[in-house]
Amino acid sequence: MPNSHLAPGIQDGRQFNLPPGSIIQIKLIQLFLFFSLVQSLW
């Protein structure tokens, strides 16, 4: 999985100045949506 998918989430976290816990939750949601998309394509 290329790192280009992770960069936007980190930039969004810095932009909104979210606490580290919220960023981790967002990352988990993004990973869940990403894997769901991959499974749907397969």
UniProtKB/TrEMBL annotation:
Name of the protein in its database record: Uncharacterized protein
Organism: Salinispira pacifica
